[in-house]
Specification:
Shape: globular
Radius of gyration: 15 Å
Strand content: 15-25%
Largest sheet: 6 strands, mixed
Distance between the termini: 21 Å
Number of helices: 5
Low-confidence stretches: 128-143
CATH superfamily: Vaccinia Virus protein VP39
Helix content: 25-40%
CATH architecture: 3-Layer(aba) Sandwich
Order of helices and strands: HEHEHEHEHEE
């Protein structure tokens, strides 16, 4: 949630995200077995932040992303997005890789150092021009 505070209000055009689903999956930095009330309150917090940073004309998609890679790719191509894309649960970086392949600006947020390293490897494998990726513990940016 700290990273959200660094993103200006109404600055993001499109949000695709694949949040943890509270089904007991083992993550490095997140407990995926919360009390249902706590889980919903946590969801309300990050959804509110997504809505704050989203432009009035922006769109948000919350999904189980790995199962929808083909959909995302086709959607971005057809819609011609040339805007800043945010994935606030970057995981292995699939959203960021697709954004980079389509030469889109992106921000990814990820708590796990291990996944941040995986994201960096995946992004560096793309070898696309105009890509300046600057890792921090939990933020990947291309401006």
């Amino acid at each position: 949630m700290k990273v959200f505070k660094e993103i200006p209000s109404e600055s993001v055009d499109l949000i695709f995200t694949d949040p943890p689903f509270n089904i007991g999956k083992k993550y490095d930095e997140y407990k995926d077995t919360q009390d249902l009330f706590d889980y919903y309150n946590w969801c309300y917090l990050w959804i509110d932040e997504c809505m704050r940073v989203l432009k009035p004309t922006g769109q948000i998609y919350i999904m189980n992303f790995p199962r929808h890679l083909a959909f995302l790719h086709q959607y971005l191509i057809k819609s011609g997005w040339k805007y800043l894309i945010l994935d606030c649960f970057a995981g292995s970086g699939t959203t960021l890789v697709v954004a980079k392949q389509l030469n889109r600006k992106y921000i990814g947020i990820e708590l796990s150092e291990r996944y941040c390293k995986l994201i960096k490897r995946r992004l560096n494998q793309e070898n696309l021009t105009k890509s300046e990726v600057k890792p921090t513990k939990s933020v990947w940016e291309k401006w």
